[in-house]
Amino acid sequence: MVKYKKTIRLKYGNTNCYLIQGRKKNILIDTDWAGLLPNFFRLLGEHKLKVQNIDYLFVTHYHPDHMGIAQNLIEYGVKLVVLDSQVNYIHQSDYIFKRQVNSKFKPIDDSQVLHLSITQSRKFLKDCGINGEILSTPGHTNCSISIVLDSGEAFVGDLYPYDQVSLYDNPILTESWKKLQEANVKIVHFAHYADERI
Ligand SMILES: [Zn+2]
Predict the structure, then answer these.
(1) Which residues surround ligand 1, an ion (CB under 5 A)?
(2) Which of 151, 173, 171, 148 is nearest to 162 (CA)?
(3) CATH assignment of the domain containing 166
(4) Could you say which residues of the chain have pLDDT below 70?
(5) What spacing in Å lies between the alpha carbon of 2 and ligand 1's midpoint?
(6) Tens digit of each residue's pLDDT (9 = 90 or more) over 109-133
(7) How far is the centre of ligand 1, averaged over its atoms, from the C-alpha of 140 (Å)?
(8) Residue 49 is part of which domain span?
(9) In whole angstroms, how large is the CA radius of gyration of the chain?
């Protein structure tokens, strides 16, 4: 049975962003640095997509190279979905952009954000025509999440790779990978590393 139509890797800077095309709605995972909106639109065009084809945006964690154009996309009608573990972190990178001269950064408008409890994530994705769930996977940051599809694919942002877990000796990171293994993850898509099979 087809669980979702397909996933597309969209890289227009230094961050691997992903579009999951569900049977009903499309979700974007991560953005890149502020100011890269034109690059993003050009890349969408190469895939015969428009920003209007993106229904929801999830940010794996709120570092500047993952959320830089989130507010721009909100203004184009994309709904930013913030998990309960992320609510207190969505402005943590604002100060970095403020220090930049000519920054094109727009801080996220909290009133336009859609809040989602992690316990409701499976239902939310199902309504998009995507079989999967969202897990809280801290280790790189406290607010890190992973989007896990029942097909065995996981989108983990900047989580440190599985084959390096023992190097970090970090119980929080080890626990996050345990959760991903228990969710039967087989292929891991990172924001800055090549895919990993576990
Ligand atoms: Zn990061």
Answers:
(1) 63, 158
(2) 173
(3) 3.60.15.10
(4) 1-4
(5) 32
(6) 999 999 999 999 999 999 999 999 9
(7) 7
(8) 6-197
(9) 16
